[in-house]
Amino acid sequence: MARILITGASRGIGRATAVALGGKGHEVIATARDVSMLDDIPAAQKLQLDVTDQASVDAALARAGRVDVLLSNAGSTVRAPLETIPLDAVRDLFELNCFGALRVAQGVLPQMRERGSGQIIFMSSIQGRFVIPLIGTYGAAKQALEAFAETIAIEAGHFGVSVHVLQPPAVTSGGAERAQVYLDDDNPYRPLLDKLGPFRAAPVSVEQVADAVAATIDAGSEAAFRIPIGETAKSILAARKAAPDDALFLAAPLAW
Ligand SMILES: NC(=O)c1ccc[n+]([C@@H]2O[C@H](COP(=O)([O-])OP(=O)(O)OC[C@H]3O[C@@H](n4cnc5c(N)ncnc54)[C@H](OP(=O)(O)O)[C@@H]3O)[C@@H](O)[C@H]2O)c1
């Protein structure tokens, strides 16, 4: 059984995965910005960890000790056209989804490299491979995250560390509904918001994502690098793969 550190375990996918992995007998180190949010999770260890704060990450990892698997899950999204999104909102999103994820990975990599084993699983999204208008900042952050992940996979793979990115479509976590929306009624891009419904249709459950995490841990280094979750993710990513790279993917269905 593995010792698994999960970031963003207070709610949503992180919480469901902490519960599911604990139920399978793994030693879960559940972490959250507000550790009291973990009170009702039956984890082996519960630690305060804010991925945007180096001192918080250092302190949590010092207390965690051995980490066999890092589930880098903490993240959020935002909705706004790139013409009008406040740049601070873009910075904050990258700070959490990219730099935060890299910061925690940097924290566990030395011990994994020295042991010659370990697994890092990054929670990406189908948007790690294409962009959806009004959510492009998130897509950009997830694509940067996948570039970090692919680089670490090659660099640290040499030392026995395996790296994977999970790509869920819409998830029933409530995370998307918590997105900060920068779209006043008079914003000229507002009508585009009505086009996004299909991307929230047929969401996968947090339990399905937790199952995918568990299967990735079971498969270890044999697991694929990119792992789409559910049929919606598989079909849209297959369509993206088949589409020409020199044209705009999704431009026609999202014309307005
Ligand atoms: N929901 C979707 O449709 C969907 C689809 C594809 C991929 N994903 C990805 O799945 C992951 C989890 O999302 P979710 O849907 O479960 O969202 P969620 O329910 O909003 O959970 C996000 C988690 O991240 C934590 N977090 C936020 N800022 C943090 C920070 N600075 N340090 C540590 N933790 C922090 C939150 O903690 P607090 O309680 O402290 O805010 C919360 O535990 C994200 O990476 C997201 O991009 C989600």
From TrEMBL:
<dbReference type="Pfam" id="PF00106">
    <property type="entry name" value="adh_short"/>
</dbReference>
<dbReference type="InterPro" id="IPR036291">
    <property type="entry name" value="NAD(P)-bd_dom_sf"/>
</dbReference>
<keyword id="KW-0560">Oxidoreductase</keyword>
<dbReference type="InterPro" id="IPR020904">
    <property type="entry name" value="Sc_DH/Rdtase_CS"/>
</dbReference>
<dbReference type="InterPro" id="IPR002347">
    <property type="entry name" value="SDR_fam"/>
</dbReference>
<protein>
    <recommendedName>
        <fullName>NADP-dependent 3-hydroxy acid dehydrogenase YdfG</fullName>
    </recommendedName>
</protein>
<comment type="similarity">
    <text>Belongs to the short-chain dehydrogenases/reductases (SDR) family.</text>
</comment>
